[in-house]
Amino acid sequence: MSSHATTYVSFLEAEKGFKSWLTTLDHKRIGLMYMATSMIFFMIGGIFATLVRLELMFPGQTIMSAGTYNKFFTYHGAIMIFMFIIPIIPAALGNFFLPIMIGAKDVAFPRLNLASYYIFIAGASFAVLALMLKGADTGWTFYTPYSIRSGTSVVLVALGVFIMGFSGILTGLNFMTTVHKLRAPGMTFHRMPLFVWAIYATAIIQVLATPVIGITTLLLIMERVLGIGFFDPALGGDPVLFQHFFWFYSHPAVYIMILPAMGIISEVIPVFSRKHIFGYHAIAYSSLAIAFISFVVWGHHMFVSSQSDLANMLFSFLTMFVAVPTAIKVFNWTATMYKGSISLKTPMLYALSFLFMFTIGGLTGLFLAALSVDVHLHDTYFVVAHFHYVMMGGTVMGLLAGLHYWWPKMFGKMYPEIAGKISWALIFIGFNLTFLTQFFVGYLGMPRRYYDYPVQYTSWNIASTIGSWFLFAGFLLMLIYFVKSLFFGKRVAEAANPWGGKTLEWQIPSPPPMHNFAETPHVTGRPYEYGVAKL
Amino acid sequence: MIGFLLITFRLPQASTMASMVDNLFDFILWTSVISFVGIVFGKLLFLVRFRRKKVPESKTAYITGHTAMEMSVAGILLVWVMVIFYFGWVDYKKLRVAPANSLEINVIAKQWLWEFQYSDGRRLTNELVVPKGRPVKLIMTSQDVLHSFFVPNFRVKQDIIPNTYTSLWFEATQLGEHPIYCAEYCGAAHSGMLAKVKVLEPDDFEAWQVEGSLGPMAALDATANAKVSPAEMGKTLFSTKGCNACHSVDGKTGVGPTFMGVFGHQVELQDGKKVAVDENYVRESVMDPQAKVVKGFQPIMPTFKGQITDEEMSALIAYIKTLKEAVQ
Ligand SMILES: [Cu+2]
Ligand SMILES: [Cu+2]
């Protein structure tokens, strides 16, 4: 393991040329391809978000027509959910680091891994094709019967989602098998880094839940193409059934999105605090607990949908239990910093932002889980703000923490710290300005997916739009410095382990060699052994 | 100052249920704020107290966890969320069960307007007139896609579904007008699907009920003797019939074309033909909208055949004529 940067060939240099990437079976390269693809979708989705906010800056028409607006918020949602936030952490960072962190040379099925990537590309192509034809104006939720009757390319988008689902299922299977079969000697389950636990729990949800969205989109396609009446009352169908199917997948999917980010936070906080993680078992098993609870709470999206009062009561009750494992995690991450030696480098700043924003996201979830209060707040901007605090304040902050944390590991080059902090500040301010205001405007009654709004909501919307500019600037700066560091950044000698990490990926050179480990590591202890015991 | 804050941060509590919902909202809000401030304060304390400058990297404590502490956090939290759940459910039941003596009104939602039908046969578009202090039960269905009936000032909301009846009830406590929004995305003019609840004193409501029989025409009939010009009547109809959801009168393009400076001019149709906008064209556009579709717009205008009388049609035309050039 002490093979120094002098003699080895990294996975980036091992083979050359475009073709070597497209046909690679190396999990690290596949991870990077996912990363590049999803990041491009993140940029596209982000541009749509900025345009949507611009339109909402003032009541009435600001820059686009109602029809265009409806398409743009649909694109924003669908791209961000299906093509960015679901794949980005598991398929990109998970692919790259899961095998290394358990001391494996690759995932269990490398060919399947590459196939998953191409399936993802195929699905994404259908979705993109749809956008270039007639687009889609249904919102990312495809609620029936509107989605049956909409004159846009709903079938193609649904087909895209259907196909991308297979990519997720296969990746999940691959990761589960990898964790069970390829752990290095001595790497017991309870010695696995918490990021691995998180990806493992995510994989379980992906395998179990994704088929449901597959079936749902398939039924939708059959209804539109063949006129079979599953969901449209005009054909004898039940539109609320669609909502059950949709949320039976999409609620667990929320945890497909957030659990991996939680895994990253569990890595970053101990390293930058020089402390053992507080409550390893609680964090590991709470991921599994969340995964299981996530399957029985879908009805909380449907409290005013005409679902029965009894069902509403049960779903509200069950939803409350999600709070417990989540809060334990937040408590444990905070407690990890106690008596540590805290360094506020960019990854840690993002991890702290995660704690701050995700906590707001979680607490505002309680308002929505309480039945009577949700009747008022449902389908208002309060909900929009809530899930952006969870998805962007949570998942994206976790992603950015991980991206900065592992950047030197993946590329052997450092990102610029000062620019990183400036960009963080812009994003932090911008995010909170954009979305905190939406809680207020939502409580005051402004429904979501509104193209135009009554004038009394104007000042909140102006503030929110200004926030989106900060966000835009922050992400632009980040794009510039990441790309610059990639092409012009100097190889840093200490990049093998700049943060003093104790997990396996930091014990090999950066970027990692082709087969990760020169010799199979033998694991003798847990991954967060920092600190001096008081005798 | 406090008044300003109240207007900016609080909604009017205009129904018997509003303060109940707000109380639980406030309970969750303030308990959350307190715990959130506590967590953030704790973190900031750690950041200052244990920053790297102060504590050398090799001198950190070795702590791996504390099960009792985790358990108590979980326990306290569980109690808290169960309290929230309990009151949420108790209050929700009150929101759901309409008193037996409720005044029943049928609601038909369609892209993109609201129709309210009273038991005596009168129909209103985009205006719901109710008495203060009496429970009102709405029995709702949709003619096309999903919609959702939402009155923020009352804290009530219910999705509306085609081929199914859903219901909702409220008892208004504040006179005046309260906005109704559609809260379920329903297409192009979703945000234009606006209406209002007009709350009258019970006596005024009685009077209003006996006034006439034909929906918004009631008020107009009553004032017919007071010589309302057709254009003025058309102006009222323009919003009560829901034209304003899609058409502006000030030049802005919405879902449909604006009416400013249209009458008497030529418009280009989808097939490239040009037609002059005259009385017959307007009439045809309203009764059979898909017959001639204006270039650059979707053929989504609903037909108003059977819903607009000849007299109303003439009034609308008269109104559109007045919009020839100037902003109304
Ligand atoms: Cu959910
Ligand atoms: Cu609507």
Architecture overview:
With 535 residues, chain A is mostly helical. Helix content of chain A is 67%, strand content 0%. Chain A has helices spanning 11-14, 18-22, 27-55, 66-101, 110-132, 146-149, 154-181, 194-226, 239-273, 280-293, 309-336, 346-369, 371-377, 381-411, 417-443, 458-488. In chain A, helix 12 runs parallel beside helix 15. Helices cover 37% and strands 19% of the residues of chain B. Chain B is built from 8 helices and 12 strands. Chain B has helices spanning 2-9, 18-49, 67-96, 202-211, 217-224, 230-240, 279-287, 310-322; strands spanning 103-110, 113-117, 123-125, 127-131, 136-142, 147-151, 156-160, 166-170, 176-182, 195-200, 266-268, 274-276. Residues 213-225 of chain B have low confidence and may be disordered. Chains A and B meet through helix 4, helix 9, helix 10, helix 11 and helix 12 of A and helix 2, helix 3, strand 7 and strand 9 of B. The complex binds copper (II) ion (CU) (2 copies). One copper (II) ion (CU) binds next to loops of chain B. One copper (II) ion binds at residues 147, 182, 184-186, 190, 193 of chain B.
List keywords for this structure.
heterodimer, A: 535 residues, mainly alpha, Cytochrome C Oxidase, Chain A, 16 helices, globular, disordered N terminus, B: 328 residues, alpha+beta, Immunoglobulin-like, Cytochrome Bc1 Complex, Chain D, domain 2, 3 domains, 5-stranded mixed β-sheet, 8 helices, elongated, binds copper (II) ion
Helix and strand topology:
The complex is a heterodimer of chains A (535) and B (328).
Chain A: H1 11-14, H2 18-22, H3 27-55, H4 66-101, H5 110-132, H6 146-149, H7 154-181, H8 194-226, H9 239-273, H10 280-293, H11 309-336, H12 346-369, H13 371-377, H14 381-411, H15 417-443, H16 458-488
Helix pairs in contact in A: 3-4, 3-5, 3-16, 4-7, 4-8, 4-9, 4-14, 5-7, 7-8, 8-9, 8-10, 9-10, 9-12, 9-14, 10-11, 11-12, 12-14, 12-15, 14-15, 15-16
Chain B: H1 2-9, H2 18-49, H3 67-96, E1 103-110, E2 113-117, E3 123-125, E4 127-131, E5 136-142, E6 147-151, E7 156-160, E8 166-170, E9 176-182, E10 195-200, H4 202-211, H5 217-224, H6 230-240, E11 266-268, E12 274-276, H7 279-287, H8 310-322
Parallel strand pairs in B: 1-5, 4-10
Antiparallel strand pairs in B: 1-2, 2-3, 5-8, 6-7, 6-9, 9-10, 11-12
Helix pairs in contact in B: 2-3, 6-8
Bound molecules: copper (II) ion (2 copies).
The site of one copper (II) ion has 7 residues of chain B, from loops.
